[in-house]
Specification:
About 35% of the residues lie in helices and about 20% in strands. It is α/β, with parallel strands linked by helices and about 230 residues long.
C-alpha cells in the first residue's frame, strides 16, 4: 500500500490561500489512506471541522473506493456535482496518484493534504515499513523474498558491505544486515549453495513515467495464441 502522512496544516492553508479558495470540497480515499488513517472518513471530517473553524466553507466531502481509479473519481464528481461546482478548490487526502487522478477528472484546482512516503507493508496496526521501490526488475526469487534494493540503506544487490559488524547494519545500527538475513533465510531453505551474485540492475526497466495497458496484452494473447 502507499503510505502517506498529513502535510503540515499551515502549508495546506497556504496552498488554499494561494488558490484564493474560500469554499472547498474534500476528497479522501477508501483504500490506502483509510488504512494509514490519513484520508479516511475520520480524517476527512476532522479536516472539514478545522477548515470551518478557520472560516472556510466546506461545500461537501467524499470518500471513493480508491482515489487513484479514474472512473471511480469521475463517478464521485458526478455524485457530488453541485457541491463540486460551488467549490473554489478540492483538497485531496490521498497519495500523489490520487491527487493527480482527481485533477484529471475535474476542472477545479486540486491541492494535496498528504505527503506520499513509500510503498509499504502493514506490519501491524499503525506500523508500516517500506519494502518495495517498484524498480521494474524484481529479484525476490533470488533473495529469499527480501528486497536488498529497498531494505539495504546503501541499495547494495550483493553484500554485505565492509561496514557490517557482527551481523548488524553499518547505517541502521539497531538492525540486522539485510544481506545476513538473506543468506540465513537461503540457508534455512537449503538454497545458499546455489546462490550466485546478482547482475547490476537494468535501470531501463524503470522508465518514467511508467505506463502499461493490460488490455493490449490480453488482446494480443487472444489473437496471437500466446
Amino acid at each position: 500500500m502507499i503510505v502517506t502522512r498529513p502535510r503540515d496544516w499551515a502549508l495546506v492553508r497556504a496552498q488554499l490561500a494561494d488558490l484564493h479558495a474560500k469554499r472547498v470540497f474534500i476528497m479522501g480515499c477508501g483504500q490506502c489512506a483509510t488504512v494509514t488513517e490519513t484520508g479516511g472518513e475520520k480524517e476527512v471530517l476532522a479536516a472539514k471541522a478545522r477548515l470551518e473553524q478557520e472560516g472556510v466553507e466546506v461545500t461537501g466531502w467524499s470518500i471513493g473506493e480508491v482515489a487513484c481509479h479514474a472512473s471511480g473519481q469521475r463517478l464521485e464528481v458526478r455524485k457530488h456535482f453541485g457541491e463540486f461546482s460551488s467549490a473554489d478548490a478540492v483538497l485531496v487526502l490521498a497519495c500523489g496518484a490520487g491527487v493527480q487522478t482527481t485533477a484529471d477528472v475535474t476542472d477545479k484546482p486540486v491541492t494535496p493534504g498528504l505527503d506520499s512516503l513509500f510503498l509499504g507493508t502493514v506490519v501491524r496496526h499503525g506500523v508500516f515499513e517500506e519494502r518495495c521501490q517498484m524498480c521494474g526488475e524484481c529479484v525476490l526469487d533470488r533473495t529469499a523474498g527480501i528486497c536488498p534494493v529497498t531494505t539495504c540503506p546503501k541499495g547494495l544487490l550483493n553484500g554485505p558491505c565492509g561496514g557490517m559488524w557482527n551481523g548488524m547494519c553499518e547505517v541502521l545500527r539497531d538492525r540486522e544486515c539485510v544481506h545476513v538475513r538473506i543468506r540465513e533465510r537461503l540457508a534455512a531453505q537449503g538454497r545458499a549453495v546455489s546462490a550466485v551474485p546478482l547482475p547490476p540492475k537494468d535501470h531501463s526497466k524503470k522508465l518514467k513515467p511508467g505506463s502499461i495497458d493490460m488490455r493490449a496484452g490480453r488482446k494480443k494473447s487472444r489473437h496471437g495464441g500466446a
